[in-house]
Design a protein that fits this description.
By secondary structure, this protein is α/β, with parallel strands linked by helices. The chain contains 7 helices and 8 strands, in the order βαββαββααβαβαβα. The chain has a single domain (6-44, 51-199), classed as 3-Layer(aba) Sandwich (Rossmann fold), CATH 3.40.50.360. Strands 1, 2, 3, 4, 5, 6, 7 and 8 form an 8-stranded mixed sheet that branches. Helix 1 (17-31) crosses helix 7 (177-199).
Length: 201
């Protein structure tokens, strides 16, 4: 098992916007001098017989419990689903009781990010919903400070709770410059904090 510290960028993405945010956050973490590991979760289905392949056909690998337990910091991302995180991500998080029991995530930094189709589509409540289980795990939440001046001028995504993206009605709007900068700034801050906290353990 690798002992090299890494940021786990864990997300669920249906149309690709949250996945692109994850890549930008990973880029920011690497700018801070720490490895970034992109991971996703399989979709869930009401069909009880549906079983996901163990390796997805494309994109990031599925996250394992070991990926989560071994991370030095966590960035958690989801599209907005009625002001809440998407069911596949919630399903995965609900399966992490053993990590809660062992305290594996205590004092590790974390951040959250989200994408929605409309500007007022519940982005901030989605971010807050993702923070709750992280607080139960004892993680240290790191938002975006207003020293990131893009927060003051963005007309699309971006909140002090974490980066957001306005994907548009058809979920095909690319990240704009402000959204990219905020994602990278969040990743860089998370990476820097992870390295600082590692030095104090």
């Amino acid at each position: 098992m690798s002992t090299t510290p890494y940021i786990l960028v864990l997300y669920y993405s249906r149309h690709g916007a949250t996945a692109e945010m994850a890549r930008q956050i990973a880029r920011g973490a690497e700018q801070a001098g720490i490895e970034a590991r992109l991971r996703t979760v399989p979709a869930v289905s009401a069909d009880c017989e549906a079983v996901a392949d163990s390796i997805p056909a494309e994109g990031a690998l599925y996250c394992s419990e070991q990926d989560l337990a071994g991370c030095a910091g966590l960035a958690l991302g989801s599209p907005t689903r009625f002001g809440n995180m998407a069911a596949p991500l919630k399903y995965f998080i609900d399966s992490t009781s053993s990590l809660w029991l062992s305290g594996a995530l205590i004092d590790k930094p974390a951040c959250v990010f989200s994408s929605s189709s409309s500007l007022h589509g519940g982005q901030e409540s989605t971010l807050l919903s993702m923070m709750l289980p992280l607080l139960h795990h004892g993680m240290v939440l790191a938002g975006l400070p207003y020293s990131q001046t893009e927060l003051l001028s963005t007309e699309s995504g971006g909140t002090p709770y974490g980066p957001t993206h306005l994907a548009g009605r058809d979920s095909d709007r690319a990240l704009d410059d402000h959204e990219i900068k905020l994602c990278q700034a969040q990743g860089k801050r998370l990476g820097r904090l992870a390295l600082q906290l590692l030095d104090n353990r």
